[in-house]
Amino acid sequence: MEADSPASRTAYGAARHRAVHQVVEDGRIFRDPLAVPLLGESPEDLRERGRAQASDRPMRWFVCARARYADVVLDAAAAAGLDQLVVLGAGLDTFAYRNPYPGLRVVELDHPATQDWKLGRLRSAGIAVPESVTHAPVDFERDDLREVLRAHLDTGRPVLFWWLGVTPYLTVEAVSQTLGILGALPHAAVVLDHASPPAAHESPERRAWLEARRQRVAELGEPWVSEFEPDQLRGLLMDRGFDDVHLEDAAATIRRLLGLPPSPDPPRTRLALGARGWPVPAGG
Questions:
Q1: Residue 73, class by beta-carbon neighbours within 10 Å (0-12 exposed, 13-18 middle, 19+ buried)?
Q2: 143-174 pLDDT, tens per residue?
Q3: What is the distance of C-alpha 252 from the center of its chain?
């Protein structure tokens, strides 16, 4: 992307992680055939990036694990009749352009600059935009999300929200307010990830990696401004109207899909699913 582009650099970083994963790990955690063409970098360059930046591997695997989990939740909901999906802070997510579910409408919400940049990337890559996709600009800190949702959805029927790679860059107040809007809908579920403080058992190396990651995104102008302990997030979801909350251990998913032995460390969940009036249990 252009150096002076107002579009989200962390959205670009997540898209690059997904693309590198297709080349380096053959999509074993999360398979996305559009990730590489949409990004616009050659497989050779992506493979070299994966080799040269080995320290990015934990974040790459997590980005792919959260996308995999979101797909699993959608699959169960679609089987139960869901026909509305909203991707909050869509970035370069590709699901809407490889959607396998007939009748599923996808609404992508994002900052106008990031959305314009994505539409340009889709055109450059020759990726068609199906009629089932709607692009709606939104600023989560300023716009009235209720009005945006009412304009594009039947809010009285079940709707699934994906909210991935966004909450760390919002204030706690903005996260709480957004969850309150979603949790007030009669039939809604949200898949989200979150930043959290280092756990007591985490090694000095892991703590140093987290701090380096924090500094990197801050230098890009998109600092982490909120973080939640898992139980704190569970409580927030319940307080905001969700009556069924499931915390997902992304690390266990990663190790299972890559054929690695289980970790001896206690589970450390950074993924959550909150549901209200939902057709399937949040845990499965």
A1: buried
A2: 899 999 999 999 999 999 999 999 998 899 98
A3: 18
- Tell me the HSE value of 184 on the side-chain side, using a 13 A CA sphere: 10
Report residue 93 as tokens. Answer: 């997510």
- pLDDT at position 1 is 46
Dist CA 105 CA 269 (whole Å): 30
With H, G, I as helix, E, B as strand and everything else as coil, classify residue 54: helix
Burial of 264 (0-12, 13-18, 19+ CB in 10 A): exposed
For residue 83 the two structure tokens come to 């026909």
Best CA proximity match to 271, nearest among 283, 259, 263, 279: 283
Listed as own residue / partner, the contacts of 183-186 with beta carbons closer than 8 Å and 24 or more positions apart are 183/237, 183/240, 183/241, 183/242, 183/274, 183/276, 184/241, 185/155, 185/159, 185/276, 186/156, 186/276, 186/277
Write out pLDDT tens, residues 209-245: 666 666 766 666 667 788 999 999 999 999 999 999 9
DSSP structure class, residue 56: G
CA-based nearest residue to 154, from 137, 138, 134: 134
Q: For 257, how many CA atoms within 13 A lie in the half-sphere containing its CB? A: 21
The per-residue DSSP string of 96-148 comes to: GGS--STT-EEEEEE-HHHHHHHHHHHHHHT----TTEEEEE--TTTS-HHHH
Beta carbons of 20 and 54 less than 8 angstroms apart: no
Token pair belonging to 59: 């974040």
| pLDDT tens-digit map of 98-130 | 999 999 999 999 988 889 999 999 999 999 999
Burial (CB count within 10 angstroms: exposed 0-12, middle 13-18, buried 19+), residue 225:
middle
Of 107, 119, 109, give the one whose Cα is nearest residue 38.
119
As a whole number of angstroms, the distance between CA 77 and CA 75 comes to: 5
Three-state secondary-structure class, residue 160: strand
Backbone region of residue 201 per phi and psi (left: phi > 0; alpha: psi in -120 to 50; beta: other values)? alpha
